[in-house]
Amino acid sequence: MKSIFHKLLLACATLPFFTSCSSDDNNNNNPIEGTTGDVELFFDNGVNGDALILGNSYTNSNGETLKINRFNYIVSNIVLVKADGTEFVYPKAESYFVISEETGAFTADLTNVPAGDYTQIKFGIGVDQQRYLEGETAQQEFWNHASANNMVWTWSTGYRFINFEGKFTSTSVTGEKNFQIHQGSNSSTDNYRTVTLNLPTSARVREGEMPNVHIIADANKILDGETKIVLGQNLNPAGTNASIMGGNNLITVAANSLQMFRVDHVHNGSGNHHE
């Protein structure tokens, strides 16, 4: 590849009056109106700057060590935004994805996106009330998919937006305990949240090409975010398990989840790039 690149540079240098050389052709530089391309959102799960590996232990600023066994979440209602504020709203019926460290599902693949240069992305964490209230039949395919990935309760209680589980040790408790954080909406609160992220480099959507937007998701933020949640203070009466599935803690988790995501980089061009 290096020799080919050097030959290209030499060709450019010897033909200054006839043509110009570029790593992008005109189609890359100028989106053609009316054409579409694809976009891949790749979610790279981590814990406070380290790669997330299920079964590994991570210590947070609360003085608790977590051995994470499950980290799954739903992203939805994706919107791509150009520098001038023009928005492309991905079709709602197709805009629900389960990201799962457990099953290796890390991508949200978007098709038929209008060609253009996008500088911002918006998406929801979970399933919005409007979609949920359309009923089970209207979303049966996604409901079944979410159910297979441990992202639902019953239909009457709805979806789990975040499913975060494992074991923990704490200075405030004796021995290793289980923890379960199942974030979702309930009858008293709507815990669906929308994230807005700026892209460090424009995602250039072109016909026949697929930019990859590499998004870091930091599981540490769920408990160790702007507001701290100490698992050792949330044990059940038997003292065996810390379960957060309702109450004010879920509102805190929803707020913390807004800080969970950031765009690391954007790969433009054809092919998949996950590094």
From TrEMBL:
It comes from the Bacteria. Keywords: Signal. It comes from Flavobacterium ichthyis. Residues 36-229 form the Copper-binding protein MbnP-like domain. This is Copper-binding protein MbnP-like domain-containing protein. InterPro entries: MbnP-like_dom. Residues 1-23 form the signal peptide. PROSITE patterns: PROKAR_LIPOPROTEIN.
